Amino acid sequence: MHSLRQRYGGNLIHTHAGPNMVIINPISAPSMYSEKVMHMFKGCRREDTAPHIYAVAQSAYRNLLTTRQDQSIVLLGKSGSGKTTNCQHLVHYLVSIAGSTGKIFTAEKWQAVYTVLEAFGNSATSMNTNASRFSQIVSLDFDQTGQVASASIQTMLLEKLRVVKRPEAECTFNVFYFMMAGADNTLRTELHLNHFAENSAFGIVPQTKPEDKQRSSQQFTKLQAAMKVLGISSDEQKALWLILGAIYHLGAAGATKAEADEAGRKQFARHEWAQKAAYLLGCTLEELSSSIFKHQSKGTLQRSTSFRQGPDDVGTGDNSAPKITALECLEAMAAGLYSEIFTLVISLVNRALKSSQHSLCSLLIVDTPGFQNPKLAKRDRGATFEELCHNYAQERLQTLFHERTFVQELERYKEENIELALDDIDSSTSLSVAAIDQASTQAWVRTLARTDEARGLLWLMEEEALQPGGSEETLLERLFSYYSPAEGESKGPALLLKSEKTHHFLLGHSHGTDWVEYDARGWLSHAKQNPASQNAAILLQDSQKKNISGLFMGRSGGATVLSGSIAGLEGGSQLALRRATSMRKTFTTGMAAVKKKSLCIQIKLQVDALLDTVRRSRVHFVHCLVPKAEVLTGDVKVKTETHGESCDTGLMQLDVCLLRAQLRGSKLLDALRIYRQGYPDNLVFSEFRRRFDVLTPHLTKKHGRNYIVTDERRAVEELLESLELEKSSYHMGLSRVFFRAGVLAKLEEQRDIQTRRNITLFQAACRGYLARQAFKKRKIQDLAIRCIQKNIKKNRGVKGWPWWKLFTTVRPLIEVQLTEEQIRGKDEEIQQLKLRLEKVEKERNELRLNSDRLESKITELSSELADERNTGESASQLLESETSERLRLEKEMKDLQTKFDTMKKQMESMEMEVMEARLIHASELNGEMDDDDTGGEWRLKFERAIREIEFTKKRLQQEFDDKLEVEQQNKRQLERKLTDLQADNEEVQRVAQQLKKKCQRLTAELQDTKLHLEGQQSRNHDLEKKQRKFDSEQTQAQEEVQRERSQRDKLSREKDMLTGEVFSLRQQLEDKDLEICAVNLKLEQMEAELQDLNSQESKDEASLAKVKKQIRDLEAKVKDQEEELDEQAGTIQMLEQAKLRLEMEMERLRQTHSKEIESKDDEVEEIRQSCSKKLKQMEVQLEEEYEDKQKVLRERRDLEAKLMSAQEQVSHRDVETEKRLRKDLKRTKALLADAQIMLDHLKNNAPSKREIAQLKNQLEESEFTCAAAVKAKKSMEVEIEDLHVQMDDISKSKQALEEQLSRLQREKNDLQSRMEEDQEDMNELMKKHKAAVAQSSQNLAQISDLQAQLEEAMKEKQDVQEKLTALQSQLEFQEQSMVDKSLVSRQEAKIRELETKLEFEKTQVKRLESLVARLKENLEKLTEERDQRSASENREKEQNKRLLRQIRDIKEEMAELAKKEAEASRKKHELEMDIESLEAANQSLQADLKLAFKRIGDLQAAIEDEMESDDNEDLINSEGASDTDSEVEDRVDGVKSWLSKNKGSAKNLSDDGSLKSSSPPSSRRRFCLDRSDEEEEEEIEEGSTGRSSYRSRYKRSSSSYMNNSDGEAKLSETTT
Hints:
Blueprint: H1 2-9, E1 14-17, E2 20-24, H2 35-40, H3 53-67, E3 71-77, H4 83-98, H5 107-121, E4 122-123, E5 131-132, E6 135-142, E7 148-156, H6 174-182, H7 185-191, H8 210-229, H9 234-253, E8 255-257, E9 266-268, H10 271-281, H11 285-292, H12 311-320, H13 326-353, E10 361-367, H14 385-415, H15 432-437, H16 457-466, H17 472-483, E11 496-498, E12 504-509, E13 514-519, H18 531-541, H19 546-557, E14 561-562, E15 566-567, H20 574-588, H21 592-595, H22 599-615, E16 618-625, H23 629-633, E17 641-642, E18 645-646, H24 656-666, H25 668-677, E19 681-684, H26 685-692, H27 697-703, H28 712-723, E20 730-732, E21 736-739, H29 743-797, H30 802-929, H31 935-1095, H32 1101-1244, H33 1249-1376, H34 1381-1509, H35 1521-1539, H36 1547-1550, H37 1562-1567, H38 1573-1582, H39 1587-1604, H40 1608-1615
Parallel strand pairs: 2-16, 3-10, 3-16
Antiparallel strand pairs: 1-2, 4-5, 6-7, 6-10, 8-9, 11-12, 12-13, 14-15, 17-18, 19-21, 20-21
Helix pairs in contact: 3-4, 4-5, 5-8, 5-13, 6-8, 9-10, 9-13, 11-18, 13-18, 14-22, 16-17, 16-22, 20-22, 26-28, 30-31, 30-32, 30-33, 32-33, 32-34, 32-35, 32-39, 33-34, 33-35, 34-40
């Protein structure tokens, strides 16, 4: 406390508390967040920096880069402690220091983000003038280089009801005041805000103070600029302002109930304001009113819950549920609209921050609203439900801090067998979390019954909202019964207390250091779903304004909101998608899958998703503290005394009690104590040895560089002993080494120093090596210069040699031919390489597509597997809960059984006692009756007692029977439940077995890959050993070769020196001889000239001066010409060198290209193999899953069929037997009567047996042909319809193919014409190219001739120079004597000729150079045009081939279609003929059937009369049964033959083979009801060969018909 006070007084608000950071919110913003301070922390370690919020960001960023692990920074503290401000500082530092690719994420953009979030998500409360009313996770994704690749924001726990109602003297969200104060006139007119309402149902009124209005207007301008920076268009901004204006107008409209009747309908109080709101939303007033009010047909809230209500529960619940008011409907709609706006704003912000770059790991910053306590702000009210939610989120984050700081550390010490004496450290978590979210063990059982098991406040709210008589009183009673201490009970800490006020309770947060009084009035309304809030999204999507409907229709397709709670789940990077998937998994697995639609449980699920996201990373905690309570209330007056403690006048004052309570509630002192007394830093043995092995080089020399460590613990002990650390500063665990605070930082510093020293030595060695290499290069250059000088000297010697001239003339001509051939070869190679490259690129793209498709399949299958696992887990948890319920019920049943047995025993004992008493009374009465006259009275009493005993016995027996029946019913219900549970258990076990099989298969594959990887590693290790051995041998051989080479170079240099000396001596001798000869010649010339001059006359001095001047001019011109010739020779050499360089570059590029192609081929092959393996594995898995699924379905169908058959047999067995017996009796009677009639008829008309047999055959054949004809007719009709359909399809396809053929023919003609034109252009280009090549060869020949001329000119120049020297000598001589005029004129003429020759040669050289440059350009253009033409020609050839193939295929299809059409027309004609013949036969058969039906009716009437007359007669005796049956059959056959005597005309149709495919007719089905279609098809296929079997079946069918007929009813049905 003293340290904090001293630092805070010195304006040092940051303090280290072990690994955590403590920040006390300053009253005034200090200037410690500048760019200069920011760069002071860049790249530093935590131990090297002062406490600062930038140090936390730098530490997290450094850990992220070194470990490649996700990091997170969690801000904890009360409301108004500066959490959001510090969050902004963290983001600003990370974005500025890390940077981003292309400067996508700038500090200006992030400032715009926070401006938008503060406008839409912040408001002024009693504890903070700009408090966040939502929780957020700021995610920064970094790439491989450590730069920010993408970012996103996820929000949750938005306090959306603040729009419509809030605590007294608090404000709504800032954006409403900004818009009302800062909107310009145009926007005000569009939003209808020129006049504000006098009052509002939501309490949204404009600000009254001028300074507040000015500030809000400035903030609105800033908000619009921020939206523009974030890329939010003007239409999108306008949509937001329209919806906000509509919310304002809804509040001004208000709501009421019509007073026409008692149950009046709900409506707006002021329709003119409602009309404005409807206009702004883009809908009509009726649509808006129905969305808000008319969805409640019964006037009650429909509860959206996961419970399945019974019919009794539903009925009672609907009647007793609290009715919703019109104002609540209006508030729900406004809250839903604002929730949709906020979610849209988060989506637009994430759209501005989204990037498609690949990211490696993330850094999360968690900012939530702080602890809320109205008493701390001196407000006399209870805390609201929203403040409870924010306090609950802070408590959960404090629990995470407690787990990471205490629980995990102590568990790690316990695992590593480290005994640590920690004094007075409480490792228990805060109990207030359990009072809010504790779930019961029966959370999975879908029941509405209230149980005695303790549950949290959120669960109790859900149950009470669902119960018919639920209220806040019962809610608090149940909560107190679970968590409040009983009267007289003092053990254990109390976390829940009753308040003196009604509907109030006290909850102790922060381990009981911060008691908050909550007001529970109206809390159950938060647990009930209001349909008006759900209609808000539908209303916005169906809006008539396109800018509104476009925004929200686009959002409806994506999963940007999770269960209406978490916003901002959209993202472009892989890490953002991974975070969204983990959050969705939190809402879809386990208990969340059942309770995710419950409004109260959603709060717990949102906090669970937040903590699950943070737990996956390494967490850094920042504790923000409030200095004093006056800061919260806005009173910033400096007091000299705080709670009785005085401070220095120079120090900023602190509320010591408030600060102490915050420190105790956060357990910071305990965390600091465990940090000081324990071992906070630890490393695995192998990692520690690998990292700090550099500090002990002697151990490395001792063991060798390739030493393999077998015992890591022993190696670490040796390393620690050599480091000479104190024994108390570290501790050896089972798998890790633990260090005291600061020891590992010192080791890191020593490692940095040693590493710096090693790198310096390495740099020195590298620089020495580079210097030696440069020296060797200089020596080689010196040798090369000497060689070049020697070659130049030799070139001067052979310059005038004729053979050398011939060689220099012929060589360029040969090289020209060779270069042309090389160019052609290179062009061909380039074309081949291009084709090969295109082929490889095409294959690579195909493989890439295949791999992407396979990867997508793999992801889909993995997601399906994850879903199956989740469903399995939920099913197993449901099964466990059901089994626990079953065990409980079985236990209760056993208890009841034991009670029943005891009651039975008691009853038996009582009966025995009664019997004994009865006997005693009887004996007494018998003895006293003789003696006493009052025996009658005793007898009456005895009888009355007996009657009472019997009555009680009967009553007990009745009660016992009732109880037994109830128990039996319960037992049956339990048995049914048990069977259902067993079936579910079997299903779950089967799914689990399948998953186990999949898991085993995957583990086997994983083991195989591990073994393969180990083999590869061992192979790589062996190869590395061989490589090192080979490298050492190679270096030795290279050193030997280098030594031999140096010796050889030394000898060659000595030899060259000797030969050079010999050559120089010879050259000197030759030079001396030549000088002697030249001197002799000069002497002879001088003598001759002397004689001539003596004979000539003397000249004057003027002519002599003129000649001297001309000679000097000529010398200057000669020098200029020499310089120009030297420059031209240099340019020629440079061109030759450039040509050589280009050839070498071409060769190098060809080699590199071939290597790249080979590497790409290898990559493609590897990708193909891996994809094929993955595809095979996935196919095998899919086949196995499909087989398992089919097997299960077959078994299920078999079981269902067996069950149905068993049920039908059981239900219809008795009834069918009785009916069958009765029908048999009636049938026999009818047959006997009919037989008697037929006998009489046969006696009168006695036909022969042969005629009877013929009639029988005719009857059978007629019936058979009739049935076959009907079948054939139906089949023909079906075939005709099919043929019509086929004909239509064929005609349509034929037309389409003809159109396609014509189109292809036109394209073919166009392509042919284009090809001809291109061929002509190609021929012309080839001609031009050949002419250009010939011209270039001629030009090269001319250039070679000009070079020869230049050489001759050079020779002439040398001659001229020699002559000039001679002339100079003569002039010197003539200065002393007279000069001849004729000699001077002759010399002048020669000089003029030389000047003209030189000028002509200059012009020739320039003209040829320009010609060569122009020819080169033309040649390049021609080659480019040739390549383009050849490529286009190849493309057109391929397209032509493809079109020809298509035309050929179309022709073949046309031919096939024509064949099909002809065949179909032939079949159609045949079928029409068959139909006509069959119709004729059918008409004749129908006439015969009518006569038969008439006869059957007469027979039926006769049978009925006979049955009525002979009901009481006996059956015919059994002796004559056989004879009578045979006679009856013969007579029945006679009747049937008589009925079919006119049907002989249809006999020819029965032998037709087309009847085999016909279906059974309806007329025959009347007589043969028990026959199957299969039997009829068999009859038709057998034909005339199976007539006898047909007769027997016909008899059975007729008898079965009589079985199923009840006389008159069935016969009348058949006649109709």
